[in-house]
Amino acid sequence: MKILAIETSCDETAVSIISAEGTTVRATFAVLGDALLSQMEKHQPYGGVYPNLAKREHQNNIVPMLEKALTEAILLKPGSTSVTLETLSTLQGDDLRAALRAFIETHEIPDIDAVAVTYGPGLEPALWVGITVAETLAKAWHKQLVPINHMEGHVLSSLIKNGVIEQTAFPVLALLISGGHTELVLMRDWLTYTLIGQTLDDAVGEAFDKVARMLGLPYPGGPQISKLAEQSRTKGAVPTIKLPRPMLHTTTCDFSFSGLKTAVLYTLRNFPELTDDIREEIAHEFEDAVTDVLVKKTERALEATGAKTLVVGGGVSANKEIRRRLQAELGERAAVAIPDHHLTTDNAVMIGVAAFYRILLGRVPETDGLKAYGTLPLSSD
Ligand code: KG4
Ligand code: ZN
To answer: Which element (helix H / strand E) includes 221?
Structure first.
């Protein structure tokens, strides 16, 4: 089947068309068309993602992304499809309404089977753009609408190896680390989730971003810190600055990163001037502290649940040191699946992959009165 997927939960406007075949025993995935526009530079002056700006950017960019992805998939044919005002009713913004109307009216209905869209978690004003566009397309093209949880997208897409998901050994433990989330989730079977642990305050990506800001580095801070830490390691440096490993020895699988962030703030006060050497040393020690905690808590969760597979998802899983140590220290305990680099950050392919499993297992969420749900939990419904 072919699925058109839309992702607008944060600062990426992404549209993908995937082809998915098979069963839960073995499924194959191919990306037919993929369009992604990052708004990162626009948000940089704010030091984080500014929801209303994200919404406006999604409104401006979603139709060009649809065109790009469908063209790449060779599914966009000139023609005509009628659109009623009723069909466009949920769309916000006159420009978006006009652009989407023109787009639908001047093309044939594409040969796809479903329209999938992220409905949470994320920034609600941003999510709404994707939801209303997906609703409009599904109505105008008479296709099935499939609402998807963004985190489910991260979990399931992490299982893909060379375009295939097969012989997944359950239970699967997912470590989800992004700008908004730090969670350990157990998947006992397909689409069946239990929360094992989570952050009690800041998400790990948020901690990376905040510490980067203290060091005078631009947003998003994760890749910047990671680069400095790597430089320091390459030189063989051993940090003399010591930062705490919050909650390392507690018996739960919960995390806390705000104390670590505050510790960096206090440490910086000891230095009258922030030199490149100090930046590097702090980045190195901070990354080590975060990685120590992530590895230890994940190990504890593997022990407690007997999980056979570990998947790692979310933007922070792009971090080389975290990837390396999870693999090296937990690889004997479980099959460790960390997605390819381009799948770790937000994208629409993962939303299409999750939609495939939802359709396959007959568990598509209710679409009547579909709403953006900023704090949508991973649920087993
Ligand atoms: O999943 P994602 O793209 O967006 C959501 O938050 O949903 O994750 C973005 C987060 C940002 O906080 C960014 O700083 C972090 O992922 N990140 C990294 C790295 N690359 C991105 N953190 C640490 N090391 C990296 N290499
Ligand atoms: Zn994400």
So the answer is: helix 221-234
Q: Which residue has the tokens 């239990």?
A: 194
83 secondary structure, DSSP code: -
Q: Return phi, psi of residue 164, to 5°.
A: -130, 140
- Cα radius of gyration rounded to whole Å, the chain: 21
Distance in angstroms (rounded) separating the CA atoms of residues 46 and 262: 21
For residue 191, how far is the Cα from the chain centroid? 17
Q: Which SS3 state, helix, strand or coil, does residue 132 take?
A: helix
Ligand 1 site, CB within 6 A? 10, 178-180, 205, 208-209, 220-223, 226, 314-316, 318-319, 345-346
Report the predicted TM-score, pTM, of the whole model to 2 decimal places: 0.92
Secondary element (H or E) of residue 322? helix 320-330
| DSSP code at position 109 | P
What would the pLDDT profile of 125-163 be if each residue is shown by its tens digit?
Answer: 999 999 999 999 999 999 999 999 999 999 999 999 899
Kindly report the average pLDDT of the chain as a whole number: 94
Give the dihedral sign, CA 230/233/237/239: positive
Residue 30 Cα, ligand 1 centroid: separation in angstroms?
A: 25
- What's the one-letter identity of residue 226? S
Cα–Cα dist 2/17, whole Å:
7
Residue whose CA is at the smallest distance from ligand 1 atom 23: 222
Quick one: CA dihedral 339, 341, 345, 351, positive or negative? Answer: negative
**CB atoms < 10 A from the CB of 58, how many?**
31
Number of residues that this document lists for the chain: 381
Reported as a single tens digit per residue, the pLDDT across 16-69 is: 999 999 999 999 999 999 999 998 888 888 877 888 899 999 999 999 999 999
Ligand number nearest to the C-alpha of 150: 2
CA–CA dist 97, 103 (Å, integer): 10
